[in-house]
Amino acid sequence: MFAKPEMGSVRFWVRKIRRRPWPSAARVRPASVVDRYEDEGLHGLIDKRLEQVSHRRASVGEVMALVERYRRRHAGWNVKPFQLGTNATGLLGVTWVKNRLQEAGVVQKAPGRGKHRKRRTRAAGPGMMLHQDASTHDWVPGVKWAWVVTMDDATNEHYSMRRSPR
Questions:
Q1: What are phi and psi of 131, to 5 degrees?
Q2: Of 25, 56, 83, 103, which has fewest CB within 10 angstroms of its CB?
Q3: Which residues have C-beta within 8 Å of that of residue 139, sequence separation ≥ 6?
Q4: Is the CB of residue 98 less than 8 Å from the CB of residue 79?
Q5: Residue 25 placed within a domain
Q6: Are 159 and 143 in contact (CB under 8 A)?
Q7: Containing domain of residue 40, as a range?
Q8: Is residue 2 part of a domain?
């Protein structure tokens, strides 16, 4: 039915590791970092994947054709409908297309959305807004007590602080 994976292939090691309990799975792979260091020295620790160009990388001509197509026929469109209409193979992601069009200066980068939590201005006068907060803590071992604090927003003045047993 399917060909059995060879011993050096990644599929072989993935299958072998999945069948074992996790503590022993780390010992299955024969070549560890220590082994490579002992065999090849510092040169063995270099990640050789960084020296290679990805086989999935788009060619310069493909990127230029994409940018030109957007300039000619789709100027002013949002990137997502343009990407969906031009990407029949499904290999080009929306983010990748958007980044290439932004690098070419065809599409403007969207403005930032601002802070997640915006600071609120304090109340104008004393007594307009009061906050009440309670925090529980083991002040006495074995007994949970809560300190309930009522404070003014404008002046930070504490109106009351009470201890209540929980």
A1: -115, 140
A2: 56
A3: 145
A4: yes
A5: yes
A6: no
A7: 10-51
A8: no
pTM above 0.90, yes or no: no
Q: Tens digits of per-residue pLDDT, 18-49?
A: 555 555 545 555 566 677 777 887 777 777 77
Q: Are residues 69 and 99 in the same domain?
A: yes
Report the largest interatomic distance among the alpha carbons of the chain, rounded to a whole angstrom: 80
Task: Say if residue 16's pLDDT is above 70.
Answer: no
In a domain, 116, yes or no: no
The answer on pLDDT for 76 being more than 70 is: yes
Residue 158, CA distances (Å) to 69, 137, 146, 153, 162 in order: 65, 20, 16, 10, 11
68 and 85, same domain (yes or no): yes
Distance CA 25, CA 35 (A): 17
Cα 97–99–105 angle (5° rounding)? 105
